[in-house]
Write a structure and sequence with these properties.
Elements lengths: L1 H8 L1 H23 L4 E3 H9 L15 H10 L3 E6 L2 E6 L4 H38 L30 H7 L15 H12 L3 H12 L4 H4 L12 E4 L12 E8 L3 E6 L5 E5 L3 E3 L7 E4 L8 E8 L4 E6 L8 E5 L3 E3 L4
Antiparallel strand pairs: 1-3, 2-3, 4-5, 4-8, 5-6, 6-7, 9-10, 9-13, 10-11, 11-12
Helix pairs in contact: 2-3
């Protein structure tokens, strides 16, 4: 009776809470088992009520299952359609991780297209420049249609060189090819130099682009390469495994196919296989050891000397390798805390 009184005092609050719980549990089944698949709504509902602790629909703001399906279609979370067999639903709403991946892929594709357009524009400019500097008159040699009678024969006037003089001069002096060893001729050297000078338009563009860029393309976008390494501390940044592992730390026990890792969680010891996009580096306190993940000093161990929070970078001192003792400044994503048992 007391609970009925509490419900009567604030009906909207309880209805909203139960409706939110019902929608979350129902859509979780759609996302996990029928993501982007067309399925009958009653099939999903039977799986939902199979849970003994499920929220009953009569305690929500939706009177019938049909009204809930229309709500999913109206909010754009799913595509719904009614048939003779009942309502069908297709889950189309994507989580934040999937949207971030698609956004990064679209950005990368746009950069590739922009580079292709730059190459095309550069080639067009070179063609126009060559035409303006050329002394060749294109109108001097114009292709025309061949006009001849049916019984007319075509004759080619070819002027052949006279080789008699060459043969006579060649018989005068006979040289022993085994005694005479010809040295490198100047003409051949000139040809080699000319070959080196000649570059295709694409090679010229590539060389100019390399000069313009201060760092390689892969260093501008660390996501295009693998940065995972054994025995480094990482943090889980995805909610796909639930709140249990979100923002929790662990260490990389094994690297799988360069872009995935077997991570052992620090608090529970559980082993989880994760993609590198779902992980991030861990910045330790000053004076601790870190591992450099990519770049010129990749794989080397260093000591964290200071942190620049404004520029998201840190000053390191190398402890291993040929450059031991050298100081360098690297961004956060280029190094991570070293795991120590």
């Amino acid at each position: 009776q007391r609970q009925l009184l509490l419900f009567g005092e604030n009906t909207g609050k309880y209805l909203h809470s139960y409706s939110k719980d019902f929608e979350k549990a129902f859509t979780d089944i759609l996302k996990r088992q029928y993501n982007e698949k067309r399925v009958q709504i009653n099939v999903v509902y039977q799986q939902y009520i199979g849970d003994k602790e499920h929220v009953h629909m009569n305690s929500t703001c939706w009177v019938t299952l049909t009204s809930f399906v229309k709500h999913l279609g109206r909010t754009g979370k799913a595509i719904i359609d009614e048939t003779e067999k009942g309502w069908y639903v297709t889950w189309v709403q994507k989580d934040q991780d999937t949207l971030d991946k698609e956004k990064k892929a679209a950005k990368k594709e746009k950069m590739v297209k922009d580079d292709e357009e730059k190459v095309k524009d550069y080639i067009d400019v070179q063609i126009e420049l060559a035409k303006s500097q050329s002394t060749f008159d294109e109108t001097e040699f114009e292709a025309t249609e061949l006009l001849k009678a049916e019984d007319e024969q075509l004759k080619l006037d070819l002027k052949m060189k006279n080789f008699n003089k060459i043969q006579e001069n060649g018989n005068n002096d006979l040289k022993n090819v085994f005694k005479t060893v010809p040295g490198p001729s100047k003409e051949k050297e000139k040809v080699k130099v000319d070959i080196k000078r000649k570059m295709t338009a694409l090679e010229e563009i590539m060389s100019q682009e390399k000069k313009k860029k201060k760092v390689p393309e892969e260093e501008n976008d660390p996501k295009v390469r693998s940065w995972l390494r054994k025995r480094i501390v990482v943090k889980v940044v995805t909610k796909s495994l639930g709140d249990k592992y979100y923002k929790k730390k662990g260490y990389v026990k094994e690297v799988i196919d360069d872009f995935a890792a077997l991570v052992v969680m620090n608090d529970t010891g559980a082993k989880v296989k994760l993609d590198q996009d779902h992980l991030e580096t861990v910045i330790p306190q000053e004076g601790r050891e870190v591992v450099i993940l990519w770049g010129q000093y990749r794989g080397e161990t260093a000591i964290l000397r200071s942190i620049d929070t404004e520029k998201f970078s840190a000053t390191l001192k190398l402890e291993t390798g040929n450059f031991k003792g050298e100081k360098l400044k690297l961004p956060y994503e280029q190094f991570s805390k070293k795991y120590v048992e």
